[in-house]
UniProtKB/TrEMBL annotation:
<feature type="domain" description="DNA/RNA-binding protein Kin17 WH-like">
    <location>
        <begin position="52"/>
        <end position="178"/>
    </location>
</feature>
<keyword id="KW-0862">Zinc</keyword>
<dbReference type="InterPro" id="IPR056767">
    <property type="entry name" value="C2H2-Znf_KIN17"/>
</dbReference>
<keyword id="KW-0175">Coiled coil</keyword>
<keyword id="KW-0863">Zinc-finger</keyword>
<dbReference type="Pfam" id="PF25092">
    <property type="entry name" value="SH3_KIN17_C"/>
</dbReference>
<feature type="compositionally biased region" description="Basic and acidic residues">
    <location>
        <begin position="266"/>
        <end position="289"/>
    </location>
</feature>
<dbReference type="Pfam" id="PF10357">
    <property type="entry name" value="WH_KIN17"/>
</dbReference>
<keyword id="KW-0539">Nucleus</keyword>
<dbReference type="GO" id="GO:0033554">
    <property type="term" value="P:cellular response to stress"/>
</dbReference>
<dbReference type="InterPro" id="IPR041330">
    <property type="entry name" value="KN17_SH3"/>
</dbReference>
<protein>
    <recommendedName>
        <fullName>KIN17-like protein</fullName>
    </recommendedName>
</protein>
<feature type="region of interest" description="Disordered">
    <location>
        <begin position="244"/>
        <end position="289"/>
    </location>
</feature>
<dbReference type="InterPro" id="IPR041995">
    <property type="entry name" value="KOW_KIN17"/>
</dbReference>
<feature type="region of interest" description="Disordered">
    <location>
        <begin position="182"/>
        <end position="230"/>
    </location>
</feature>
<dbReference type="GO" id="GO:0005634">
    <property type="term" value="C:nucleus"/>
</dbReference>
<dbReference type="Pfam" id="PF18131">
    <property type="entry name" value="KN17_SH3"/>
</dbReference>
Amino acid sequence: MGKHEFLTPKAIANRIKAKGLQKLRWYCQMCQKQCRDENGFKCHCMSESHQRQMQVFGMAPDRVVEGFSEEFLDTFLGLIRRAHRHSRVAATVVYNEYIADRHHVHMNSTRWATLTEFVKFLGREGYCKVEDTPKGWFMTYIDRDSEKAIKARLKRKRIKSDMAEDERQERMIARQIERAQKSLAKANDGDEGDVAEGESESESGSEEEYSGSDDDDGEEQEEGSKEANKATGKIAIALQKSVPGPKVNPFEEKPKVNFGFDEEDSGVRGKERDEVSNKKGKDVKASEARRSALDELMKEEEKAKERSNRKDYWLCPGIVVKVMSKSLAQKGYYKQKGVVKKVIDKYVGEIEMLESKHVLRVDQDELETVIPQIGGLVRIVNGAYRGSNARLLSVDTEKFCAKVQVEKGLYDGKVLRAVEYEDICKISS
């Protein structure tokens, strides 16, 4: 049996020595070979197999390093997801658990030189929430899968609540329209009754006038014929009966006809003028009633919209906010601005700071809206027009409100004259 056969004491001793963690400086990642001392590593570097692997590395060094980096990142995140999914843990603890595997991808073969640099990368990319403390770097894994499930469930719940709110609002608007139609129908019925009375009076007056004119014409004809016969005996004057003219509109002034009763005619015209003026007054009142009913309907709809869209949460992705948490003052985040990347459970925002690019999770009570310069784009985050984008027109510093004009959407071009500071926020460019 040879000296280094499988079951010889020397071979078993070599395997026992190689089983534990060895020094990183004597590990070759390209060949995946661990050497126990400097002499062994030197001999390995002079071997033919190592030279061939180095030739492969020299053809595309960037691609090889990037491949090792991706493998290191995936394995590291898989360990955190399995062992520390919902806990805050020190980065050194996770790294020691990771390198316990003898065949892991070593960090000196990746694009990260130190563990600190790698932890900062995880925080920037949003894989973990990282914190720099006096005891070292701590990180908390951000569970994307469970967050997606929670987000989908909240979205379904919000859609159901919005549908219920829309149905209630539609029923209320239908009831308001029905009441407005009833009030308008009552006003129109009163106007038609007045018109019918005026027409009956005018027709009866005209009949009396025409009947009187017929009698008068008959008497005048008889007297005229007698006088003519007495005077000449030859000429007979016959006056035809006056043919009744077209029916006159009671709302217009009658043509001036003199039948010999000036006083009665002037009285009739006075009554007609009074009726016309009363009719005009009633038309004006009816139009004012319609306008007031529509205004009240619009106000009620605005109030209903305000009630349905006014919530106790206002965070939404894509807006710029200011961190007002004094507990974060020691870390330099107090009164610093950041962009809301996503919203968790409606009240917690994942904020990427504009200067440091660090990602924080902050409750909305410790955040404040940001107002841009005049002409900048804002998003209405609460109230009747919640979710609409608008252009900032002016700011009233005394009343703490702003004048904005809605852009795009259902209310495009509408100007809102008094929107509170807390209801609008700057949109990140």
